[in-house]
């Protein structure tokens, strides 16, 4: 079994429900929607990501002989026989990756026979939640560091191999320049970046020799790590070495700072480099950075050309999880609604419309029923799959680079307060009158909710 592509990468209760659905003959069309209930205190918006992996999962979903054998020892023959021919045959509507969205707005809708639509829940949440989480974190660095080189440095502390790969993809989608994770670059066709470790410098008996060996090995593009011992002294060595290398037509591309007072060191190093006529040599900084620290360095005027952001990005340290859900909104042609306290849902198939002002800034969203007459604004949910197959030319098939460009363009449509790292007033998301009326109709049919305050034990 390939552990990451196996359909057994799910929750046990999905199989329990499937077995019961089959026993009761419940295989009519169901509609589920994935949405986020609220924003963390440190987020003003979210960035939709992970759709490509979700569509790939749905398109290739099937059970191998080994997986069926494992299930046969644990579940009844009716379920296993059903799963032998199991394929996703439904439709998918979604917000394209890179769309900026807000609470109560569905970013994915699955329309399929109930057992299929139910079974895919766990993996869809797993994929869409994680990439949306990381893309939304990465967006904050992109917004505070326009024009700067931003590199994902977080693989070694990511929560597992798949998390490292998807974090690299999600951060690039959100506007990062690339990643240090080589496999992510190979899989997703994104740029990879790297310098050297302190151990490389330490392994040499002479720091200047280490610098020269690296530059001569990579004469086209090399960044020297200069804070292993004495940062400013190392910068002077770089200037001296550069004069020697220039005789062979080789330039020092950049230097990297990874510790200490990055702003202070950057100023000192920039002065040393400029006085040594290395004005083109870039300064790259890393070391426990997050978007707040990046903003502080830029605001202070630190002459830093690029940043490596690692742990804080790949684990989304300030908001490590988002409150998302995948809920049944319609079954057998009838609207359904969860009414749990604090977790009630809006029933029916929905569309989200975004209204813009004359300057192209978003001013409000409306969540409406799909069957309504179109509301004013841009509809954000589009078809992605039909009958279990991707629709050619639709956004789910876009190349990652095109998604990245669109995501960055989307930031320009945000109201200015939402672009800040500070928590802004909530963006207005309206629930259409027809959707509210449908919710009331469903509630009336279900009857009143009994308050626990009126119950006696």
Automatic annotation (TrEMBL):
Coiled coil: none annotated. It comes from Nitrosospira multiformis. This is Nicotinate phosphoribosyltransferase. Residues 8-128 form the Nicotinate phosphoribosyltransferase N-terminal domain. Catalyzes the first step in the biosynthesis of NAD from nicotinic acid, the ATP-dependent synthesis of beta-nicotinate D-ribonucleotide from nicotinate and 5-phospho-D-ribose 1-phosphate. It comes from the Bacteria. Pathway: Cofactor biosynthesis; NAD(+) biosynthesis; nicotinate D-ribonucleotide from nicotinate: step 1/1. GO terms for molecular function: glycosyltransferase activity; nicotinate phosphoribosyltransferase activity. Its EC number is 6.3.4.21. The keyword Protein biosynthesis does not apply.
């Amino acid at each position: 079994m390939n552990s990451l592509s196996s359909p057994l990468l799910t929750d046990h209760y999905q199989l329990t429900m499937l077995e019961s659905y089959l026993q009761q003959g419940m295989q009519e069309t169901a509609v589920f929607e994935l949405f986020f209930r609220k924003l963390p205190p440190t987020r003003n918006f979210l960035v939709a990501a992970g759709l490509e992996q979700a569509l790939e999962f749905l398109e290739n979903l099937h059970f191998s002989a080994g997986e069926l054998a494992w299930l046969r020892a644990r579940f009844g023959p009716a379920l296993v026989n059903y799963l032998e021919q199991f394929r996703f045959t439904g439709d998918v509507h979604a917000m394209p990756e890179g769309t900026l969205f807000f609470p109560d707005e569905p970013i994915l809708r699955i329309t399929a026979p109930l057992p299929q639509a139910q079974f895919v829940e766990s993996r869809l949440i797993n994929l869409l939640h994680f990439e949306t989480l990381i893309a939304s974190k990465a967006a904050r660095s992109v917004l505070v560091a326009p024009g700067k080189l931003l590199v994902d440095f977080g693989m070694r502390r990511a929560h597992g191999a798949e998390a490292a790969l998807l974090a690299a993809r999600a951060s690039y989608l959100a506007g990062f320049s690339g990643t240090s994770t080589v496999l992510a670059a190979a899989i997703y066709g994104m740029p990879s970046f790297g310098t050297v470790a302190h151990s490389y410098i330490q392994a040499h008996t002479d720091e200047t020799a280490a610098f020269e060996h690296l530059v001569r090995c990579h004469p086209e593009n090399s960044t020297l790590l200069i804070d292993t011992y004495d940062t400013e002294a190392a910068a002077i060595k770089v200037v001296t070495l550069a004069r020697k290398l220039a005789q062979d037509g080789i330039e020092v591309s950049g230097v990297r700072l990874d510790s200490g007072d990055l702003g202070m060191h950057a100023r000192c190093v920039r002065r040393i480099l400029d006085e040594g006529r290395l004005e083109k040599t870039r300064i790259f900084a890393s070391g426990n950075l997050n978007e707040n620290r990046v903003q502080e360095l830029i605001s202070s005027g630190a002459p830093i050309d690029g940043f490596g952001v690692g742990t804080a990005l790949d684990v989304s340290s300030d908001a490590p999880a988002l409150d998302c859900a995948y809920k049944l909104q319609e079954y057998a042609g009838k609207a359904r609604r969860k009414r749990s306290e604090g977790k009630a849902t809006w029933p029916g198939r929905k569309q989200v419309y975004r209204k813009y002002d004359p300057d192209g800034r978003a001013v409000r969203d409306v969540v409406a029923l799909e069957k309504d007459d179109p509301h004013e604004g841009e509809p954000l949910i589009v078809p992605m799959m039909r009958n279990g197959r991707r629709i050619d030319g639709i956004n789910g098939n876009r190349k990652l680079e095109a998604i990245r460009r669109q995501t960055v363009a989307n930031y320009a449509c945000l109201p200015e307060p939402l672009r800040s790292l500070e928590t802004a007033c909530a963006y207005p998301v309206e629930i259409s009158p027809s959707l509210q009326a449908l919710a009331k109709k469903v509630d009336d049919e279900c009857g009143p909710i009994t308050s626990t305050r009126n119950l006696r034990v």
